[in-house]
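Retry 2 of 3 after timeout on previous attempt. Resubmitting structure tokens to design endpoint.
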């Protein structure tokens, strides 16, 4: 009996725990629901809400769906963006490359299978966007040989069916006629450097390029920061996501790259104006890139400085962005997300994980 009693107690405790983890369904009394199940929740990426009076929006300006060579629907892409803390995404399916088309009978028009509607993925995303409070930028990708021509996203297109031309420059002109902004994608992909192709030279010199990706997926091109500054373009970091971002980033415990847009409002006019003015930062893999002034302002909006005694002070990082500080060649100092460190002496630092040029970091002077 002494041996049996502990077993009964353990069984009773196990059953009690089992019962607590389930609840009776509100509509079906013979159905139990796992009590600890949570609805999908948004992962909030805490950054300054405002910098210099502008709202700061988290955007991905390069994303694909099954309507070109992506693995998920536009609706999934929208929900995924909300869950991962974004405010804006651009749907930029390829015009020329659509490998899933044969298996998508609803996508290919039943009246004319040779002419699918290239606006469909954008329209489906826009239908889902209101439910998830995501702003959709309509767009498409002009996709040619990456080694000899390049890839370009047309953002804010009005009719993707009228963008294509055999000549990639003319395709960009067609997008521009619709008022589109054009972003140069992954400028060093499948190449040995970031030098211009002949087509890119024409596109840049003709003023067809408005922005460039300094980060794409897991690629980082520091030299592009100088190009952006010299040509007064907006800088961008994007996923170019094809799988689910869980597979491409979260499973590896990476935060997806994103473009931080400093705009008066989250509307077409507000976002366009910010991009045209170059008020963006590229954020990926704990690195920020952009103009020195905007980087300095972003840092100061992220950090609170509090003097304590003598020449000592506290530095509190209120954001999810880590910072690596260095003064006069000394050892780097790490200011982790949502943490406070105590420092003494100098209040002038270079921020090593911020880039305002290929080999340049912004200098910040703390107000003590």
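Retry 2 succeeded. Sequence:
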């Amino acid at each position: 009996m002494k041996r049996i009693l502990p077993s009964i107690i353990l069984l009773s405790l196990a059953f009690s725990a089992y019962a607590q983890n389930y609840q009776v369904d509100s509509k079906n009394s013979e159905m139990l629901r796992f009590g600890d199940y949570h609805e999908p929740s948004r992962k909030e990426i805490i950054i300054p809400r405002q910098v210099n009076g502008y709202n700061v929006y988290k955007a991905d300006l390069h994303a694909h769906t099954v309507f070109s060579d992506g693995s998920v629907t536009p609706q999934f892409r929208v929900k995924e963006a909300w869950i991962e803390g974004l405010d804006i995404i651009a749907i930029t399916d390829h015009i020329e490359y659509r490998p899933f088309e044969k298996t998508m009978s609803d996508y290919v028009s039943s009246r004319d299978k040779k002419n699918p509607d290239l606006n469909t993925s954008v329209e489906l995303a826009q239908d889902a966007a209101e439910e998830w409070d995501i702003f959709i930028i309509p767009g498409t990708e002009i996709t040619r040989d990456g080694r000899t021509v390049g890839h370009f996203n047309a953002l804010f297109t009005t009719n993707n069916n009228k963008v294509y031309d055999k000549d990639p420059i003319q395709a960009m002109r067609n997008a521009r006629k619709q008022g589109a902004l054009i972003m140069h994608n992954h400028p060093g992909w499948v190449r040995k450097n970031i030098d211009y192709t002949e087509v890119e030279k024409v596109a840049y010199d003709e003023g067809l390029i408005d922005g460039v990706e300094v980060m794409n997926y897991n690629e980082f091109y520091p030299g592009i920061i100088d190009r952006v500054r010299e040509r007064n373009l907006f800088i961008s970091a994007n996923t170019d996501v094809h799988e689910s971002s869980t597979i491409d980033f979260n499973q590896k415990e990476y935060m997806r790259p994103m473009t931080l847009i400093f705009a008066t409002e989250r509307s077409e006019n507000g976002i366009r104006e910010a991009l045209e003015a170059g008020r963006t930062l590229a954020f990926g893999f704990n690195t920020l890139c952009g103009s020195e002034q905007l980087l300095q302002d972003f840092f100061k909006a992220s950090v609170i400085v509090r003097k304590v005694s003598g020449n000592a002070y506290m530095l509190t990082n209120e954001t999810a962005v880590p910072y690596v500080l260095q003064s006069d060649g000394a050892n780097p100092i790490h200011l982790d997300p949502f943490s406070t460190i105590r420092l003494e002496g100098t209040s002038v630092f270079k921020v090593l994980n911020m880039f305002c040029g290929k080999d340049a970091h912004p200098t910040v002077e703390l107000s003590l």
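Attempt log closed. The two ends are 73 Å apart (CA to CA).
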